[in-house]
Design brief:
By secondary structure, the protein is mostly helical. It contains 17 helices and no strands. The longest helix is centred in the middle third of the chain and has 32 residues.
Length: 352
């Protein structure tokens, strides 16, 4: 009688567990990573807010005594910053054929601010959040990263322009101190390092990025995709000029908010006094690792305003009002919008 034997197992099959081992860990655990990021964002935001309830209370007390017209002007300036931030991403995406209404991009700008403030990373955390949000709206990862690179490059280009202009203004007023120069050098190192990481990844993939930059600004999820992006698409001169101008407008509007807050507390001041105070304080907060720049921004801003002959009481009150409008007021909506976006189910990919 014939002996029945089982057919040989196909040689080209790979056990499931072995196949899974070849998939990067971050691809196997996307949902877990997303939940972890969401939890970290919300926890950091909540802990920071609770720990600084005293500052929030002082802000509310000063706000009650401030001149309403100038407070309203500050609120209007802040609303325009979110519009400009949304226009940055709109300009970057139109270049690659993606169109989104501002009604969708403005709320994302508020949530991006929350991510940037809670997780200090030189603007990478907020930009990465925005890219994830675009993916959830059907934008391919590669297209989102093209917009991210253009946005970050324009952001740091405008930041450095504002930094140079602010240092020139302080030098003109003979108010350049050694600590300002030290902070400026550190800032320029960061301002060049962050876009360098993303640009190197976009041109060559992850292998050309120095290890020291990878450790400071880890972007493993972006490296492979960025290496496939055309440099011509990312570094379009017209798009970069638009993005740089819009990012510069955000800095000017934030400085105008500080100027309005000085006037709101009854202190006569020039815009060219508020501008370097805000920009240098932002530089110090950027090179620090303190979430929300708490303490570092306020101290630097008050010290610079004092050096420009603004009385201490007015400088402190205006700085607290500025932080209230730029940080504490949008904190809850930013937290809610970030949670909403990171919990959103991805939409089918499209270019509409």
């Amino acid at each position: 009688p014939a002996i029945m034997t089982s057919p040989p197992a196909p040689q080209d099959r790979v056990p499931v567990t072995e196949a899974n081992d070849t998939v990067p860990w971050w691809k196997r655990n996307k949902k877990g990573i997303k939940r972890g990021i969401l939890g970290a964002l919300l926890l950091l935001g909540l802990v920071t807010a609770v720990a600084h309830l005293g500052e929030i209370g002082r802000f509310l007390g000063i706000l009650r005594e401030a001149k309403p017209a100038w407070v309203a002007a500050g609120l209007a300036f802040q609303a325009l910053t979110y519009l400009c931030a949304a226009l940055v991403w709109k300009a970057a995406m139109v270049n690659i054929g993606i169109h989104f209404p501002l009604s969708q991009l403005v709320p994302l700008s508020v949530a991006k601010l929350f991510s940037d403030q809670v997780l200090p990373s030189g603007g990478l955390s907020g930009s990465a959040f925005f890219t994830v949000a675009l993916k959830h709206r059907g934008v391919a990862v590669l297209d989102g990263l093209v917009a991210l690179v253009a946005s970050l490059t324009g952001y740091y280009a405008s930041y450095m322009i504002m930094a140079v202009a602010s240092l020139a203004l302080l030098a003109f007023r003979h108010d350049i101190h050694p600590w300002i120069l030290t902070a400026s050098v550190l800032f320029f190192v960061v301002a060049l390092a962050v876009p360098a990481v993303v640009i190197l990844a976009s041109l060559y993939g992850g292998e050309r990025i120095p290890d020291v930059l990878k450790r400071r600004f880890p972007i493993p999820v972006m490296e492979d995709a960025l290496g496939k992006v055309s440099a011509r698409v990312i570094f379009d001169p017209l798009v970069l000029a638009q993005v740089t101008l819009l990012q510069g407008a955000v800095f000017l509007l934030d400085a105008a908010t500080l100027w309005a807050m000085l006037l709101a507390v009854g202190q006569k001041a020039a815009f060219l006094e508020a501008l370097p105070s805000f920009v240098v304080a932002s530089m110090v907060a950027t090179i620090g690792v303190v979430p929300l720049g708490l303490g570092t921004f306020e101290t630097t801003c008050v010290v610079l305003l004092r050096s420009l002959k603004i009385p201490f009481e007015a400088a402190l009150a205006a700085t607290l009002l500025l932080r209230g409008l730029t940080l504490w007021l949008p904190m809850l909506p930013g937290m809610w919008l970030a949670r909403k976006e990171l919990s959103r189910d991805p939409a089918p990919l499209s270019k509409g």
